[in-house]
Amino acid sequence: MLFPVGEDKIYFKRIIALGGERVRVDGDDVYINGTKLDELYLADGLKRAAELGSPYNVRDFAEAVVPKGAVFVMGDNRSNSMDSRDAAVGFVPYASILGRVVTVQHTDE
C-alpha cells in the first residue's frame, strides 16, 4: 500500500496486520494473534541470510494491538525498512492510505 510520511514522502509497504489484531516481530518471524505468519515472498531473502549465517531481520517489535481503523505495515528489507516498528511511521490510519500496489511477475515459460 502507499501512504504519506511527513509532508514530502510517500512509502510503499506491505500490510501485515489490521486493526484489532495483535502483532509481534521476533527476529525473522512475525506473529499475528499468536500465529506465525507464512511470508512466502521473503523466501529468497531468508535463504540468502541463512546461507550467510545471519538473521534476515535484526529489528524486533514487542507485541501490540493494532488500533481500530489502522494497519501495521512492514517493508520487505526488514532490517533497513522504515515501517510501523518506527515511531516516525507507527500504525497507519486507514484514512492515510493513498492506494494499493499490484505487481505481476512474468516468467519466460
Task: Describe the protein's architecture and organization.
The chain has 109 residues and is mostly beta strands. It has one domain (2-96): Umud Fragment, subunit A (Ribbon), CATH 2.10.109. 8% of the residues lie in helices and 33% in strands. It has one helix and nine strands. It has one helix at residues 43-51, and strands at residues 2-5, 9-12, 14-18, 22-26, 29-32, 35-36, 61-65, 70-74, 92-93. The strands form three sheets. It has a four-stranded antiparallel sheet, with no helix packed on it. The protein has a three-stranded antiparallel sheet with strand order 3-8-9, with no helix packed on it. A hairpin with a 2-residue loop joins strand 5 (29-32) and strand 6 (35-36). It is globular. The two termini are 29 Å apart.
Q: Can you tell me the residue ranges where pLDDT is under 50 for at least 5 consecutive residues?
A: none
Q: In percent, how much strand structure appears in the residues? A: 25-35%
- Overall average pLDDT: 90
What is the element string, with H for helices and E for strands? EEEEEEHEEE
Strand order of the largest sheet: 6-5-4-7
Write a brief caption for the model.
This protein is mostly beta strands and 109 residues long.
List the helices and strands and how they pair.
Blueprint: E1 2-5, E2 9-12, E3 14-18, E4 22-26, E5 29-32, E6 35-36, H1 43-51, E7 61-65, E8 70-74, E9 92-93
Antiparallel strand pairs: 1-2, 3-8, 4-5, 4-7, 5-6, 8-9
Structural features:
Signal peptidase I; 3-stranded antiparallel sheet; globular; Umud Fragment, subunit A; protease; 109 residues; mainly beta
